[in-house]
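Hey,

Quick one before I head out. I ran the complex with magnesium ion overnight. Inputs first:
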Amino acid sequence: GRGPGPNAASSPKLLLRRLRQALAAPGDGQERLNQIVGLIAHSMGAEVCSVYLIRGQDTLQLSATEGLRSEAVHEARLKIGEGLVGIIARDGRPIVTARAREHPDFRYLPETGEERYTSFLGVPIQKLGRNLGVLTVQNERAMSYTEEESEALALVAMVIAEMAEAGTLVPRAEGDEEPGEPVHVQGQGAADGVAIGPAHLHEPKLLLPNPIAEDPAHERIRLREALDRLRADIDSMLDDEEMAANGEHREVLETYRLFANDRGWVRKLEEFIVSGLTAEAAVDAARTEARLKLGTASDAYLRQRFDDMDDIAQRLMRRLILPDAGRDQPEDGAILVARALGPGEMMDYPRGTLGGVVLEDGSIGSHAAIVARAMEIPLIVQAKGCLRAVESGDTMIVNGDQGHVHIRPRADVVTAYEEKLSLRAQEKASFTALRGVPCRSVDGCAVRLYMNGGLAADLPSLNESGAEGVGLLRTELHFMLNKTMPTREDQASFYGHVLDKADGRIVNFRTLDIGSDKVLPYMKQPREANPALGWRAIRVGLDRPVVLRMQLQALLRAASGRPLRVMFPMVAALREFEKARAMMLEEVERLDMDVPPSDIKIGAMLETPSLAFAQKRFFEMADFVSIGGNDLLQFFFAADRTNERTAGRYEVTHPAFLSLVRMIVERCDEGGTELSFCGEAAGRPLDALALGAMGIRALSMRPASIGPVKRALLAADLSAMRTVVDGAEAEGVRVRDALIEHCHEAMIPI
Ligand code: PEP
Ligand code: MG
């Protein structure tokens, strides 16, 4: 039967007060959890109250219970998505039912003895969009829980989430290190290089001392004061002349000011304080709630609004916890640690300040990775557990070549890495010495080496690396770093700057390549089941020609008579190329400038296998073709480049891919089409040699790779390597192994 029933004791405020008293007493994590479930069960008149916490990737573990069999604690497990509890953990939404057993997803855990209980109320334990677990109450007889009870439970779940995050509640998982000990995390290297430096947390850890308020009136005053300071911060940033000169930044600040004065938001915060939370916990609770409402919105505008709101909440939080501190800037050479980073966020740190980046999430093919490579700093993704282990200022070593992260390394590890770094510096000097040497293989094949770029910050590398030009300029990066669509003038001035810096060397401007993993916050992208195969790149450009036309106009203006080379991304068929090319020619005509048509070269990126098999006419019509190896590889092998499970599965040196390259070389020769290869493989010496052996005579890569690739090419006999490829294929030997062996024997540095 039911205990006291809905009464004053289950009011959120009272429940929190009791909880606060109970938690004030000393105890370890498990004792605290036990107290919490006992207290909830008692004050809500529930026979059962349980906490399930997420362990590992996809498992929920019964971590404390009042009412279920105590032997089942730490034993009973569910998969996320399994049963009512699993569904709450998956979807992050509460479930309430008076007849759990009739619920289609009901699945009871026999070891807990819960089959007797009919009524069920469960809420997610979550913080900032991350699900940490589930809190449930159950009763034997069929009854419905009141709205108030459900709210009370949600509030307690927030308290549990705060404490779990602070590490005061959940017993440390196995393998967790004590702070202060050296920690090694194995992630995946997404941008090469090695760096040693002090840790800088992208989002500082703001641990909440106690989420339950002692005195709500005092919390309200603290909130008001922090809000005042926040508004003053924003005003002074707006007054800052340098900031004000930057139109785009100004707009963001104006938006922030609106939020800081948003009555709805302030009211929400005060409500949470009234129900018993501290000001900090109220800010977090409001963030969590907003994330639940807006975080999954597909509307780009709403999502952007939400991101801004989230940012302002984070600033308010800092003001509450550190009333006088400003935003701390990283020291020079700092290692940035974050859960995930957009490419724009990385650019917020001035070039040269970051020594390396470590992400808990992220992927090798993501644009954050491309930006890191452009900035020539090591990046490690999927470094699970780093955020938990690191404190701001800890010494860190990042080894992007092997995916190692060392936190607070032992002195001998530091010494070993310092030696490595000094060797690298020597190597770099030797590459600099190669800059003026023409790139010719031993058997006399000239191979032109270009750099990939996309940001103004890349351009100094043109001279430093000795690249012959920019083989791929990813124009979407400029779009991605802006909060609003860059105007034609804005684009023209950026492209003009690029041409100025190139100073007569060629630049292949690749038109906007968005969709898939590259999203513009201000441009609506439909939700798609397979975005990589979806509405992206030239497909968007042809269907929504306004943006593409504007870009072509900006390019023509920027060139203003200088030679211009433009290529279209992801062209899959002749027809698409014809349309895009016609659009370009129309703009040339419309602009009525004095450009000799021969100075405008129109090309296509070959990124889908279908284009390799296009009609002959395509190769005759295109002035140049650039193989986009990253995409071509993923489509050729049907292996998602951003999916960690499949991205590393196939390689350029696979005989099937080499045959494809060989065929493209032949078709371009027949059509009289210039051919180059861009994409990450061009920058890996062994892959670059294999491509050279197939007849590729122009490679475009990140600037730092030009030295190593050139060194390898200078030592290689490309026709001998072609023989190695053919021989290995004929004998059924793995081509890659045969190439590596050949390079070792011929002393070709790969
Ligand atoms: C490619 O696909 O190889 C390429 C160079 O383009 P992106 O990596 O920008 O898709
Ligand atoms: Mg591509």
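The pocket of magnesium ion (ligand 2) is lined by residues 569, 607, 628, 630-631 (CB under 6 Å).

Talk tomorrow,
K.
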